[in-house]
Amino acid sequence: MPQSDMAKPSPFVIRRREWGDFYAVFHIYDFCSPRNMSVCGGKGVYGLLSCIERCSFLPCEPDRVLVRVQKLTPEKADQLIWVRARIHTSRAKGKQCFLVLRQQQFNVQALVAVGERASKQMVKFAANINKESIVDVEAMVRKVEQKIESCTQQDVELHIERIFVISQAEPRLPLQLEDCVRPDGEGDEDGRATVNQDTRLDNRVIDLRTTTSQAIFRLQSGVCQLFRDTLTNKGFVEIQTPKIISAASEGGANVFTVSYFKTSAYLAQSPQLYKQMCICADFDKVFCVGPVFRAEDSNTHRHLTEFVGLDIELAFNYHYHEVIESITDTMVQIFKGLRDKCQTEIQTVGKQYPSEPFKFLEPTLRLEYTEGVAMLREAGVDMGDEEDLSTPNEKLLGRLVKEKYDTDFYVLDKYPLAVRPFYTMPDPNDKKYSNSYDMFMRGEEILSGAQRIHDAQLLTERAIHHNIDLEKIKSYIDSFRYGAPPHGGGGIGLERVCMLYLGLHNVRQVSMFPRDPKRLTP
Amino acid sequence: MPMYQVKPVFGDDIKTDLPTCMYKLPNIHAQRSASGCSEHALQNGTEVDPAFRDLEVRQDKIMRRLYELKAAVDGLAKTVTTPDADLDQTVTSLSQSPTATSFRGTADLDSLLGKDLGALRDIVINANPARPPLTLLVLHAMLCQRYRVLSSVHVHSSVSGVPAQLLACLGPRHADSYVRQRFQLGFTLIWKDVSKLQMKFSIQNMCPIEGEANVARFLFRLVAPYPSDPALATLVDSWVDTAFFQLAEGSAKERSAVLRALNGALGRDPWLAGPELSLADIACYCCVLQTGPAASCPANVQRWLKACENLGHFGPANPLLQ
């Protein structure tokens, strides 16, 4: 470097030891002297900006508007616009540098070419910006004759006039985004890598930037919103239940203990008890969305220790099928909403994880447990009348139902009483069975629900029958002593519903920062 | 006031000669008395009363039978154009003999559909809402008369919306429908985006049956057996195929040819195949009315259409024909 070029470094440059840094120093001094910066809104053309500088542009160019990449269409052709996006890829070729700028699910091609607006050093600077850095770009939008297949904005390209780095990324990324998005089979054929799930989860911040992850979590947000909207329209009230409780609600084994001042308390396994107390408190129809903690040491594809539970409880008038109809109608409205409004997201996920589209019937198909057992026996499975369904049997039954009725979602009603919890109401017509039901998506259980016993006397009897210590559930039984309406309900796991709707195979892909027996961070 | 008195015109002592060859009746205005000098045997003692009573009873019975006959004839007057009395809905208790197609019970279902595994035998039909299967709705009504059928209608996710009358086409929901086990047969109609109508029954033992004609044949066998005479059975089959392929899906020329053929066949016999209503008549009725209004058909066909309507089976199809 000639000595004269190494002029006084501008005070506006971040101190970094990179090749490009020296060029930046030289050129910021050259074109953006402090005199120019303060007076005419920074006539600098490119460079790295410190945190202070990001704010310093605003008073100088108060009417600068950042355009979303999604809006870059041929309508904006020949306009000079500013865009803030990440560098997805950059490739230098002689006197030109091609960049792909990415903003969430959308990306656009951008070009820095040596000419009257850009110098060779600028092109080199652009080529050397680290991937994933956030840049501000002033560019002219130009129409292209041939569609750019590899970008989402296929009809336009940006010709960059000014480029500034707002936030620089480290040069070596722990994983590459193209590898994250590559479908599993494809990588092995071409010798290119796909990323292991553990690596992905360890570097979740980068993994969540991929188009697939963005689509998955937008869909999950849609599920939550549709759940709330559908139930609110039906007259339900949203409640918040406590998660630190004094006694285990479902069973003693799978519960987390926390130290609570001088004693200990537990993290709630489900909001069951409090939902029912709300019904006894005359709220009639309630739902709640909140975390559920299960200390199950299961390392499977569908178990998490902490997940989001969407729980419903309602009082009914004459028959518990009113509860089933209400819940299945809510699920069908959610499915319809996703089918009609989230097709882009479903297609995006399908590119990396192809699967069959989700099918359902309206009104929802309701089969009885005896029918399910008969179908399984016809298929060669040997099982007793009152035996519970094992996971492989559930999957087989799901396939049989799909074959006959072509639906991925159905309800299995009237489970045997012996396999249900003590608070399940027995069937008045047949004491071997109960008024309880399970709902399945793609052959996997997503909801377990029932009509609850609302009579304190009967509840005590059933608890004694199940050898449960009455002292531990005294407050639970007490809540039914002062007039409780007949009621029922059920709860679904948000992550499991999303996973099964999209046909994914691991619930961790659908949980932003999943918790399982082996993972506690990030 | 003294009134003008008229002298009697004739005297009351005139003697008249009554003829002796006439039958003398007692004076019906005179009081009835046990010692009355009536010549009639009825008034003589109690030993004649039972006979009188018997006569009265016989007379009452005859009058009652006459009234019943009159009511029956009035009913028959409505179906006077319907030659077949077997499946007539309006004949009263006078026709006591049950016909061959009356209630058969579960024993027959076991022989037709295979052993009962303790669960509802559910027939699943996937139909396109753009082409509702009228024949199957008629057969569903006939099935409901013979068995306890749990009917349900669903809309598949491949179809976005279905008109209300298609959702209600199987009739109102049964009161017992919350317990599926109480029914002998299930009939599940799913409105789906399929190119051909499809029926699924037993996944392990049967492949899906496609085409409205074939599903109609399956369902009809649950209602009544096919004619045992092979020639007649073939005739029924050929009319069913004609109805579905040429009448429903054919060009205008084919349709008019079929109507002419129908006209010719119905000129000879009251029904299309044999002396009774059969699947051929059901299929042709639905397809004829789907192609055009009744008034545009030839005369024999119109008469036969009226006869079909009088039988009352085609009620479920009518709202969908408008």
From TrEMBL, chain A:
Reactions this protein catalyses: tRNA(Asp) + L-aspartate + ATP = L-aspartyl-tRNA(Asp) + AMP + diphosphate
The organism of origin for this protein: Oncorhynchus mykiss (Rainbow trout)
Aminoacyl-transfer RNA synthetases class-II family profile domain: residues covered: 217-522
Quote the function comment for this protein. Catalyzes the specific attachment of an amino acid to its cognate tRNA in a 2 step reaction: the amino acid (AA) is first activated by ATP to form AA-AMP and then transferred to the acceptor end of the tRNA.
Source domain of life is Eukaryota
This entry's Enzyme Commission designation comes to 6.1.1.12
Q: Which NCBIfam families match?
A: aspS_nondisc, PRK05159.1
Q: Give GO terms: molecular function aspect only.
A: aspartate-tRNA ligase activity; ATP binding; RNA binding
The Swiss-Prot or TrEMBL record describes its family as follows: Belongs to the class-II aminoacyl-tRNA synthetase family. Type 2 subfamily.
The protein's name in its UniProt record: Aspartate--tRNA ligase, cytoplasmic
- Which cell locations does it reside in? Cytoplasm
Q: What is the lineage of its organism?
A: Eukaryota, Metazoa, Chordata, Craniata, Vertebrata
An individual GO BP term? aspartyl-tRNA aminoacylation
Is this entry keyworded Cell inner membrane?
no
According to the record's subunit comment, the protein's assembly and interactions are: Homodimer. Part of a multisubunit complex that groups tRNA ligases for Arg (RARS1), Asp (DARS1), Gln (QARS1), Ile (IARS1), Leu (LARS1), Lys (KARS1), Met (MARS1) the bifunctional ligase for Glu and Pro (EPRS1) and the auxiliary subunits AIMP1/p43, AIMP2/p38 and EEF1E1/p18.
Write down the Gene3D superfamilies for this protein, in alphabetical order.
Bira Bifunctional Protein, Domain 2 (3.30.930.10), Nucleic acid-binding proteins (2.40.50.140)
Q: Name one GO cellular component term.
A: cytosol
Keyword Acetylation listed? The answer is yes
Q: What keywords sit in the KW lines?
A: Acetylation, Aminoacyl-tRNA synthetase, ATP-binding, Cytoplasm, Ligase, Nucleotide-binding, Phosphoprotein, Protein biosynthesis
UniProtKB/TrEMBL annotation, chain B:
In this protein, which residues make up the domain named AIMP2 thioredoxin-like? 119-210
In the record, biological process GO terms are: apoptotic process; cell differentiation; translation
Entry GO CC: aminoacyl-tRNA synthetase multienzyme complex; cytosol; nucleus
Alphabetically list the UniProt keywords: Apoptosis, Cytoplasm, Developmental protein, Differentiation, Nucleus, Phosphoprotein, Protein biosynthesis, Ubl conjugation
* SUPFAM superfamilies, per database record: GST C-terminal domain-like (SSF47616)
Report if keyword Cytoplasm is assigned.
Answer: yes
Q: Taking every annotated instance into account, which residue ranges of this chain make up the domain AIMP2 lysyl-tRNA synthetase binding? A: 1-45
Q: Which residues form the Glutathione S-transferase C-terminal domain?
A: 250-290
A Pfam cross-reference name: AIMP2_LysRS_bd
Q: Where in the cell is it found?
A: Cytoplasm, Cytosol; Nucleus
Tell me, how does this one assemble? Part of the multisynthetase complex (MSC), a multisubunit complex that groups tRNA ligases for Arg (RARS1), Asp (DARS1), Gln (QARS1), Ile (IARS1), Leu (LARS1), Lys (KARS1), Met (MARS1) the bifunctional ligase for Glu and Pro (EPRS1) and the auxiliary subunits AIMP1/p43, AIMP2/p38 and EEF1E1/p18. Interacts (via N-terminus) with KARS1. Interacts with EPRS1. Forms a linear complex that contains MARS1, EEF1E1, EPRS1 and AIMP2 that is at the core of the multisubunit complex. Binds FUBP1 (via C-terminus).
Q: Which PANTHER family match?
A: AMINOACYL TRNA SYNTHASE COMPLEX-INTERACTING MULTIFUNCTIONAL PROTEIN, AMINOACYL TRNA SYNTHASE COMPLEX-INTERACTING MULTIFUNCTIONAL PROTEIN 2
Q: What does this protein do?
A: Required for assembly and stability of the aminoacyl-tRNA synthase complex. Mediates ubiquitination and degradation of FUBP1, a transcriptional activator of MYC, leading to MYC down-regulation which is required for aveolar type II cell differentiation. Blocks MDM2-mediated ubiquitination and degradation of p53/TP53. Functions as a proapoptotic factor.
* Name under which the protein is recorded: Aminoacyl tRNA synthase complex-interacting multifunctional protein 2
- The gene designation is LOC110539039
